[in-house]
């Protein structure tokens, strides 16, 4: 039954045109962020620098979160509105229903951004070098900096992976908010607003809990590439699980008719 719940959720995502259109949207936004520099044939432009420009542009970065949320963050809204949730819960159980939703939402958000950015850097790699070896000290930073010397593609993939984890977290936050306000627009827009608010709130916390820095793969724990990469994964999954627990709490209340 657990596999059935996850399979149903996965099919719902991967059979939806919204998933593939969102990937294209992420890639398109990435190119928009550097279009002026490409058009001007800016000297010294690299794939790494282009990725940093995109991640550093607040407005476009937040729109990526919007695309990440489109495939699945609002799925609970449909389940609740049309009461699909009742037969599914009867067949799979409430706990399996909830966590299959959370996992699928996280996975779809992650893949939307990760694949979109992979396409972005792949296309760029045909036009420009991955990194600039002449300006390593000013363009490549820890904790993943050492990877750039021998494996520049691994350096780029690590940064994209962490950024995609952050987007996945915000999609789960959107799913959670949809359990409180089951409106499609709210579920899709909430991750963008939540990312702004929570990043600002964590700015006053220690660096290793600062979501603004974590999203950008900053060297917050100063422990090297492997340990830092593991830490990034742990933090974003931990926060996603906490959001999932809140989602579970509210869904249970709705099932028990404790929410009007």
Helix content: over 70%
Q: What is the number of beta strands? A: 0
**Rg to the nearest angstrom?**
19 Å
Shape: elongated
Largest sheet: none
How far from one another are the termini?
30 Å
Keywords: Membrane, Transmembrane, Transmembrane helix
Transmembrane segments: 12-34, 54-77, 98-126, 153-172, 179-198, 225-247
Keywords:
260 residues, 77% helix, mainly alpha, transmembrane, 13 helices
Write up what this structure looks like.
With 260 residues, this protein is mainly alpha-helical. Helices cover 77% and strands 0% of the residues. It contains 13 helices and no strands. The chain has helices at 2-14, 17-39, 47-56, 58-69, 75-81, 85-92, 94-125, 136-139, 145-150, 152-180, 184-201, 211-215, 224-255. Helix 2 (17-39) packs across helix 3. The longest helix is centred in the middle third of the chain and has 32 residues, at 94-125. 40% of the residues are buried. The model has no long low-confidence stretch (mean pLDDT 89).
In short:
The chain has helices at 2-14, 17-39, 47-56, 58-69, 75-81, 85-92, 94-125, 136-139, 145-150, 152-180, 184-201, 211-215, 224-255.
Topology:
Layout: H1 2-14, H2 17-39, H3 47-56, H4 58-69, H5 75-81, H6 85-92, H7 94-125, H8 136-139, H9 145-150, H10 152-180, H11 184-201, H12 211-215, H13 224-255
């Amino acid at each position: 039954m657990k596999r059935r719940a996850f399979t149903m959720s996965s099919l719902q995502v991967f059979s939806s045109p919204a998933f593939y259109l969102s990937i294209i949207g992420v890639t398109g936004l990435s190119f928009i962020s550097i279009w002026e520099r490409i058009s001007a044939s800016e000297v010294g432009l690299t794939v790494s620098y282009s990725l940093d420009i995109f991640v550093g542009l607040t407005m476009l970065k937040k729109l990526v979160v919007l695309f990440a949320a489109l495939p699945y963050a609002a799925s609970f809204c449909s389940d609740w509105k049309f009461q699909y949730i009742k037969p599914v819960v009867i067949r799979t159980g409430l706990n399996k229903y909830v966590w299959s939703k959370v996992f699928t939402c996280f996975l779809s958000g992650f893949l939307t951004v990760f694949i979109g950015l992979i396409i972005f850097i792949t296309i760029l790699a045909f036009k420009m070098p991955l990194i600039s070896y002449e300006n390593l000290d000013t363009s490549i930073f820890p904790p993943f900096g050492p990877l750039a010397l021998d494996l520049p593609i691994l350096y780029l993939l690590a940064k994209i992976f962490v950024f995609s984890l952050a987007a996945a977290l915000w999609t789960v936050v959107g799913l959670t908010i949809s359990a409180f306000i089951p409106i499609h627009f709210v579920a899709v827009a909430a991750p963008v607003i939540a990312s702004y608010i929570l990043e600002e709130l964590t700015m006053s916390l220690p660096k290793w809990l600062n979501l603004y820095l974590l999203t950008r793969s900053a060297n917050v724990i100063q422990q090297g590439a492997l340990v830092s990469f593991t830490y990034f994964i742990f933090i974003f999954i931990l926060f996603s699980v906490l959001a999932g627990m809140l989602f579970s709490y509210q869904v249970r209340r709705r099932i028990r008719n404790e929410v009007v």
